[in-house]
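F.,

This is the one I mentioned.
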């Protein structure tokens, strides 16, 4: 049985890029259940925080204390980027490939990939070059590819930005199913309506610091900082 990688304790972490501080002395406790949405104005450090959790950014100060060793933590999480990266393979092979990397046999990987292709309703495009899919189809495929590996932690950066209502609804339904199955989800979004529909808790990030972290119901009913209040009103927050 694979050891649980969560909870995670982020302690005093700072991230700098080209001399500019993006994340500043950030502390965060991440439980093993639920769906957390990170919100905040542009430049607040939302994507950098996700990249930090996934190991794509290294902290200048502080540390990430996983419930297990770093190698196990990295192998049991997945990241879906805002602009999906498609392999130069068919849609089906895009799901097969990471499964074989994790040790699945070709037949096992094929069965799992076919299952996920059906779940996301891309059966008709299974053997089409993934780069030829529409934006919504690519986003669904990227999500299915990540979920097929059964990650304990799923990180999503604006997973429905620039998608139409139908594609957004399909992805949100898949995320709700994923949360119910036990996968921990942390995602960014600018869509306040989406955050209200999905979030168990909200982190409001501002100038690289966590200004609020509370249950979604409480956050949307009465945010505790003037910056979060202005953000939810649609005001420009600098």
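My design for it:
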């Amino acid at each position: 049985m694979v050891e649980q990688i969560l909870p995670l304790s982020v302690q005093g972490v700072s991230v700098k890029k080209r001399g500019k501080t993006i994340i500043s002395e950030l502390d965060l406790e991440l439980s093993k259940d639920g769906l957390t949405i990170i919100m905040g104005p542009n430049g607040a450090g939302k994507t950098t925080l996700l990249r930090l959790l996934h190991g794509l950014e290294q902290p200048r100060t502080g540390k990430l204390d996983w419930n297990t060793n770093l190698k196990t933590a990295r192998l049991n999480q997945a990241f879906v980027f805002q602009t999906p990266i498609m392999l130069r393979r068919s849609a089906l092979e895009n799901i097969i490939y990471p499964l074989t990397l994790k040790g699945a046999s070709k037949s096992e990987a094929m069965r799992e990939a076919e299952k996920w292709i059906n779940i996301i309703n891309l059966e008709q495009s299974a053997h089409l070059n993934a780069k030829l899919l529409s934006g919504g189809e690519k986003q669904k495929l990227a999500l299915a590819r990540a979920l097929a590996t059964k990650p304990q932690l799923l990180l999503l950066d604006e997973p429905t930005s620039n998608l139409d209502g139908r594609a957004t609804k399909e992805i949100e339904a898949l995320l709700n199913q994923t949360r119910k199955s036990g996968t921990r989800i942390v995602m960014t979004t600018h869509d306040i309506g989406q955050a209200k529909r999905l979030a168990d808790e909200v982190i409001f990030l501002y100038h690289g610091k966590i200004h609020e972290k509370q249950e979604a119901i409480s956050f949307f009913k009465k945010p505790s900082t003037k910056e979060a209040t202005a953000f939810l009103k649609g005001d420009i927050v600098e």
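The chain is about 40% helix and 25% strand.

Talk soon.
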